[in-house]
Amino acid sequence: MRIAIAGGGLGGLTLARILHRHGIDAMVYEREASRSARSQGGSLDLHPESGQRALADAGLAGRFRSAARPEGEEHRILDPAGRTLVHHRPQPGSFTGRPEIDRSALRDLLLDSLPGDAVAWQHRLVAATPRPDGGFGLMFDGGHSADCDVLIGADGARSVVRSLLTDAALSSVATLVELSISDADRRHPDLAELVGPGNLWCIGVNQILAAQRLGDGSIRVGISLRADDRHLDTYRSKRALLDMFDGWDPSLTALIEAGDGPPTPRRIEAMPTGTRWAHQPGITLIGDAAHLMPPVGEGANQAMLDAAELAAELATNPADPDSAIQTYEEAMFTRIHPIAEMSARVQAMMLSPTAADDIIRFFTPQPAESAPAGRAAIL
Ligand SMILES: Cc1cc2nc3c(=O)[nH]c(=O)nc-3n(C[C@H](O)[C@H](O)[C@H](O)COP(=O)(O)OP(=O)(O)OC[C@H]3O[C@@H](n4cnc5c(N)ncnc54)[C@H](O)[C@@H]3O)c2cc1C
């Protein structure tokens, strides 16, 4: 069984690693030129029941604990005047919650766990064609080609493989503008203290100014705005952003002024909740390719859990990959539906006129709960 995984992100690499542990080879085709070709972005909190469970299946729980930052779970929510609405402090040194890990550290951890030749870098899949005798012919940018018996699309938000299974369209759910502040403790001690070791969200009317501490001492700033038709260039100047936050406390807007370079805007998209497809032989999707959701703290966790569950099915039933895939797909559709609905609700709530009140309610543990129901991770 030749398994091809399109995409070497968190989902694809977790899948390759767990299959490898079961003695099943898989080839990962990744469009980037090398592991360091692109900055991997901010940090993630990995949940015990999904991301951390997948790392346990991958035999990487110990290495995760060495690389993770439990103190990064600390988060503060402020209003535009700088008043604290919520301040969550995790138990010092405790790994029982949702410790943060930088994306780059997590990706490195997965890459280091794979044989050197498991990832074919600079292989952007441009087309997959079903072969008459089963499996797929794969065509890559630049003219390379390959064959496989099973094709797994782990190629993220704009998946090429997805179009072989569903014509679900993406819709814009927000605009995210990012800035980075390097060496924050030395260069901007006030901002370092404001953000703390984890996440900060300043909630306004239809807009959020957020900041997140990374393991390298930098601060990643993210501005979330409602989706609109304005050209992305509108958001490329700090001056324009500062105008949007007119009236906010200067201690907060200092996060925009301190950005190292010009702001980088992008559209945040999602698939319709409840997306599913009719099973087809020899092909499936995991992660954002299968269920792109608004970024409220579940996407990477679910991508890794998809990988763990699909790998477990394939390892249990190696002689019948189609039945393994079908079992995975049914369970994944059922698991993801309520999570995608919750993500859409939280996203709408975060960028609403009454966001501050709604978020306080959301983050206030109910009597039976000991932790917030979810993480409103706009970063
Ligand atoms: C701003 C933001 C914040 C977020 N915060 C969180 C969070 O706190 N917690 C959380 O759980 N999730 C979070 N998410 C969601 C999370 O990033 C994704 O859900 C997760 O990365 C999905 O993993 P994946 O492996 O499916 O896709 P990706 O991580 O996107 O990986 C896809 C890979 O496929 C490669 N690729 C793409 N196309 C091709 C092609 N044609 N051929 C070959 N390779 C290809 C890409 O280069 C990439 O390496 C956030 C998302 C955003 C946008």
From TrEMBL:
Binding residues for NADPH: 38
Organism of origin: Micromonospora viridifaciens
Pfam families, alphabetized: FAD_binding_3 (PF01494)
Protein EC: 1.14.13.-
Segments forming domain FAD-binding: 3-197, 282-330
GO biological process, one term: response to antibiotic
Main localization of the protein described in the UniProt heading: cytoplasm
Sites where the protein binds FAD: 45, 103, 288
InterPro entries, per the entry: FAD-bd, FAD/NAD-bd_sf, TetX_monooxygenase
UniProt GO MF annotations: FAD binding; monooxygenase activity
Cofactor(s) named in the record: FAD
Name under which the protein is recorded: Flavin-dependent monooxygenase
Key words, A-Z: Cytoplasm, FAD, Flavoprotein, Monooxygenase, NADP, Nucleotide-binding, Oxidoreductase
SUPFAM superfamilies, A to Z: FAD/NAD(P)-binding domain (SSF51905)
Protein purpose: An FAD-requiring monooxygenase active on some tetracycline antibiotic derivatives, which leads to their inactivation. Hydroxylates carbon 11a of tetracycline and some analogs.
